[in-house]
Structures are given as C-alpha cells and as structure tokens.
Amino acid sequence: MFKIVKAKIVTFFIICPLFVFAQSGAIHINQLGYYPDANKIALVVYAGANTFDIVNVADQSVEFSGILSESKYGEDANDSIQLADFSAFNKPGTYRIHIPGFGDSYPFEISPVIFRKAAYASMKSFYYQRCSYKLQPSYAGMWARNAGHPDTNCQFHGSTGKSGTHASPGGWYDAGDFGKYVINAGISVHTLLSFHENFPNFFADGVLKIPESGNGLNDLLDEVNYELDWLKTMQDDDGGVFFKLTTLNFDGMKMPDKATATRYIIGKTTASALDFAAMMAMAGRVYADYDSAFAADCLVRAEQAWNWAKENPSISFRNPAGVSTGEYGDGNLSDEFLWAASELLISTQKEEYRTFLEDRSSSLNYWSAPGWPNVQQLGTLSLLTQPNNLPGIVLENMKSSLLSTCDKWIKQIEESTARIPNFGFYWGSNSEIANRGVAMIYAYLLTENTKYIRGAAECADYLLGKNVTGFSFVSGFGWRTPMNFHHRAFSADGIAQPAPGFVAGGPNAGKQDGEFYPFSAPAKAYVDVVGSYASNEVCINWNSPLTALLAGVDAVLGDGSVVDYPVAQSANNPPTLTLSAPKNNHSFGSNIPLTVRWYSSDTDGLAKAEIYIDSRFRAAVTGPSLEWVTDALEIGDHTITVLSSDTNGLTTGRTNRFNIYDATSAEIFDMQSELAQLKVRSGNVYDQLKVEYQLSEHACAELLLFDNTGRKILGYLIENPALPKGTSIVPLTRQLPAGIYLLTMRQKGKRVAATKLMVK
C-alpha cells in the first residue's frame, strides 16, 4: 500500500521589524525617470492598496494623487500586479511614489533629458569593446586596460579554403567573449548608422569623450568606423567574406592581453557576404560627405560581396569540428539578400537592385522585430526613411505593415499586466523589446503620431527598471543594476562594477547556462552572476538597439539642451550581501520559526534591508540587526529575498529557494490512488532512480523524494510525461543512505501517487 505524510494547515504571522521603512523594491519604476510628455506608469507588486501619491523629494509635498488599478495576475511573472499611472503629471523635478499603508518607491526624475547620459553611455559601450586597442584612463576612466589580441598574424582555418596567416586587427569584441563575428556586426552597424541617418546631430563630436573626439566627425561615426575598418580585412580577394575571427574554444575569464591562444579566421558564407554588402553600402552613403575615398571603397566592396553571394547563394555556416565558439548559424538566406539589395538600392539607385526588390516586394513587410538571423526588416526601415526609386505602392504597403505591427504592440502594452508588448523570454530578450521600441520610433518619424514615441519610451522603461525583476538592466543607470556580467574583462579586472551603459541579455526561460535561478517564472528568469551567459551576458547587437532607443526617445521627447557625460574615474558601489539563512535548497520543519539571516556591508553605511517571501513584501529592517524571525510558513516550496540598500539608495539583492515540510508527524499511512501508479525499477540508487509511472492526464508531473522524517530530499520535473505509461530517469546528487524513503508524484499541485523506497 502507498503511504504519504499527514498534512497540517499552518497559520503564521510576521514579527514586527525593528523599524518599518519604505519598500522601494515592491514598486517597480523606470529607475532614471520619465520625460514630461511620456507615459509614466509603475508596477506595484502584491500591494492590495487603492491610492498612491507623487511626493516631491525636495519638500515632501504631495503634488499628484491617483487611483491604483485593480490587481491582475501576471502569468509570466507569477505576481499580482497593480499599476500606478501618473502620466498626466508632467512637472520637472525629483519625486517618489508613496502608497499609503504600503511604502515608497526609489526616487526618480521627471526631466527633458532623462535618457541622455544613458544613451551616451550605451553608445560608448562599443569603445570598451574595442579589440587590438589600449583603453587609456583619460577616455576609459577606471576601466582602462592594455590592448589585447593584435590579430596581425591570424591563422586561416581550413573552412575558409585558404591556408597561411592573415592580419585582421581592430573591430569590436562581439560579447562577453573575445570573438569577432561579421554576422552580429551586421545588425549592430545597421542600427547605429540608420539612427545617424535619422538623427545626424545627436552624437555630436566630443560628447562621448573617445580618442577620436575633437576630429570634427560625429562620435557615432568615429566609433562605427573602427568596426568598418576591421570588416574590410574580412573580405577575400574574390569578394566573398570570412565568417568569424575567434580562437577554437572560448577563453577563460581573463583580461584581453592575457588571452594569447591562437586566433583563427573561420568560414566563408553567403550570409557573411550579404551582411557585409549591406553594411558597406550603408557606409558608402553615410560617410560620403566626410571621407569620399573611404566611402567609395565601401561601395566597391559592397558590390563585390553582392556579386560573390549571387554566385554562391546557399553557403551556410556550421561550426567545423574542433570549433566551439559562437556559431550564428542561419539556414534561410532570403532575408539577407533583401537587406543587402535594399541598402545597395538606396546607395546606388541601380536598376538591378530595384528590380530584385520589386520582384519580391511582398516580402518587404515589417512583421516582427529584427534579429541577427532575421534582417529583412532592416532593409524595410532603411527604404522607408531614405530616398529610393521603388514604386510608391510598394513603399506604402511597407509603411502600412510597420504601422500595423507597431499598433499591435501598443495594444499589447495597453492590455498587458506589466505594460509590455508580447515577446518571448529567451536568449537576449532585452534586445527584442529594445528593437520593438526602435520600430515605434520609425513609426513616429513616418506619422508624427505621439502614441508611437510614448510606446517606445515604455519599452525603455522596461529596460530601466519597470519590470518584474526589479532590475534596471543597464549597468550604472538605476538603483539596482547588473554588477556581475558574463564578460571576461569585467570579471578579471578586479573592479566591482562593470563599465556603465551595457545592457544585460535579460530574462531567459531556457536557462541554458545551468546556473541557479531563484525564480521559475519566465519573466523573472534572470540572475546577476558571472556564470549566467544565458541571461547576464552583453552583446553588441543588444546594445545597438538600446542606443537607438534611448537616443531616439530623447531626440523626440527631450529638449535638446547640452548634457555633459564625464569619464568616470571612480564609482559608488552598492552593498555587499550574503544570504546565509535559510540556505538555498534546504528543507525546514514546520515546527520551528523561520529565521532569515544575512550579512551586508557598505562603506557609505547601510540604510535598510527589505525582506520578501514569495515576492511579497514582509518587513524592512534598519539598525545593527541582520536577522529577522517569523513563524513557520505553510508547507511547500518558497523563496526568500533580501534587498540591502546603502544610504545613497544603491541596492543589492539575493534570493534563495527553500522548502517547509510537515514536521508534526512522521507517521506514514496508506493511500489508495486510482489516478496513477508509481514504481521504482532502478537496480541501484547510487546516482539515479529509474521510475515507472502511469498517468491519466497530460500535464507536467513533479517527482518528490522525502526521507522518513518528511524532509524533502529532491524534486524532479517531468515536463512532458508519456501517456498512459512512461519511464523517467531521476538523477541523484549524492548516494542515498540506508533507510526508508517516500517517493510521491504531483500534478497541478495535487498528489496523484506515492510509493515507498527502501535503501539497504
């Protein structure tokens, strides 16, 4: 007969903290602030309140009051969310949101230049990614470093069809690794050059304080030129373009000048030729007024690459044997042809490219945000904003598709629990919402309808803190920002903070890196640790749309006044924080109080610690105490989060998962189950259990193993169980000691089967 542990209903209460303080972590805002004419909305988590006030920080006066929206359950976040909408309030100043009986937000500004410094920093992130280049303190500040990877003697990999060595210095490191990739350069260069074509005066000479500042050329063009010079070295004599320049395997976490493994030029493909053609065609027209010889050379190279691609239309890339760096594989090349033809048409007005596009005009619609494997939309944006000789009906259809797509996204924002358009929380999800915001900027340029620029600003709000993680994903901009990017130089330089202006990849439900993610909800699948390349890496094709989004919103909603962005020679760090109890993945009996214990320190002094259980605010503690106690929680799995803030408001957070088991009785009683059967078929239990099950319903099933005291040993999720019978291999992290164990199966939160396991 099956046996289970008796259940007990547990009630609990909160012991009063030493001092009740405002819970800024439960009110999620754009941590920089808002433009006077933008939508101004905050997310309030598990408040259960009715009203809110906008309080002037200068004199504590209430300058605006509003009604909180009804609570809605956010499925992607597993949170109950209310909205505080104060869009009607547009007086410049510094404010906080106060919710009576609940708490206060971080301070924020309403300002006509609120994104400007962040836009400059995002653009300057490319300077910090320069390869073969020494970053001097006068330009790089505290993140100065020696030059790495001269790339003057790179080996041709056999996949290129060539042998010997080749010089290919310069360019940008692609991401947190030291590779250089033509494919990812493609969308990044387009996004920046296209922004310049629409807002040519935004990154004026000198605003970024890079080595080229003061040469009379726009700073954005100076920085992109550094990448273009490298790209030219990747073109073969026959017009084709090599795919990437990397080591055979990723380097460890070290400074660029310490990474000395042999570098290889790898692959030669249709996609790299077409992306190259598109970039060079753009450069040929953008740089024509500044360096006619450079621009003319770009156009020649663009057409050479196009012609090579026509003769080699289907060469795709897969990593050769022995190569494990970024693959950027793409089996569909039709979009690359469309993008390259679009840029070549704008730059040359040649009949060949017009005919090519006319014959495929139905494929020029803007139906989704672009990404490195889907670049046709880049050509559409260029064709809609730059002179060309396509028929008017073709351009009108393209415009209609862009506006229709942006209207759909704006409607999704308006209907969303968390005020975001629908997008998947996958690798680099932050670039997806940034690219949607960029599309809305184009829609505004084509219509001057303010709903589009307001929608774009809300996309920026998400990236700067108005999201369910509580992070501003942009380093150095906000009260709680990434400190531990998956980035080799920032991990190895001994400096606590990364350089400002980099954006994290963002929530990723795939969690491919194997790191510990405290929350299972897709919208919260983000963790600020170095090992999280799946959610916390940086990449040039994520920063490029961030740059265009922040700068574009400022160019439209801002007042254009001068803002100085100095080179940082020092930085104020948030507190250090260790969460020591309850320990991660530990189980605790229901017969003892729950103790929360942490260690935190900061040179500026600590202001408070906020405590959240299952994302619900429970208490705020100030003073010397770093411990908080409450009655035992209900039986089941929980999360504990501590946010520690210094006297300047900078915040660090830690979250652990833990389990409460029923410790009132170890008695095991028989359970009859008509729904399922459960058997252990494993011959040994040293490293795994082989479990047979029989189910009547197709739903995720969870296997839980308990010892004879009722303490949870492990949990294992079967996401797609077989019907009616199936087998699952459950890995064990350690050998089970001799004894009697209880194995249970749950579906939809209900126990559907159980069996005993005896280990001798």
Walk me through what this model shows.
- 26% of the residues lie in helices and 23% in strands.
- The chain is of the alpha+beta class.
- It has 4 domains: 6-16 and 579-661, Immunoglobulins (Immunoglobulin-like), CATH 2.60.40; 34-110, Immunoglobulin-like, CATH 2.60.40; 116-557, Glycosyltransferase (Alpha/alpha barrel), CATH 1.50.10.10; 672-759, Macroglobulin (MG2) domain (Immunoglobulin-like, Sandwich), CATH 2.60.40.
- Strands 3, 5, 6, 9, 10 and 11 form a 6-stranded mixed sheet that branches.
- Strand 7 (72-74) and strand 8 (79-85) form a beta hairpin.
- Residues 1-21 and 665-675 have low confidence and may be disordered.
Mean pLDDT reading: 92
Query: Which word captures the global form?
Result: globular
Instruction: Summarize the main sheet.
Output: 6 strands, mixed
- Low-confidence sequence ranges: 1-21, 665-675
In the CATH classification, which architecture of the largest domain applies?
A: Alpha/alpha barrel
Through-space gap between termini: 20 Å
How many whole angstroms does the radius of gyration measure?
Answer: 28 Å
CATH topology of the largest domain: Glycosyltransferase
- Count all strands and give the number: 32
Structural class, from helix and strand content? alpha+beta
Count of all domains: 4
Q: State the assembly state of the protein chains.
A: single chain
CATH C-level of the largest domain:
Mainly Alpha
**Proportion of residues in extended strands:** 15-25%
Number of alpha- plus pi-helical segments: 14
In helices, the fraction of residues equals 25-40%
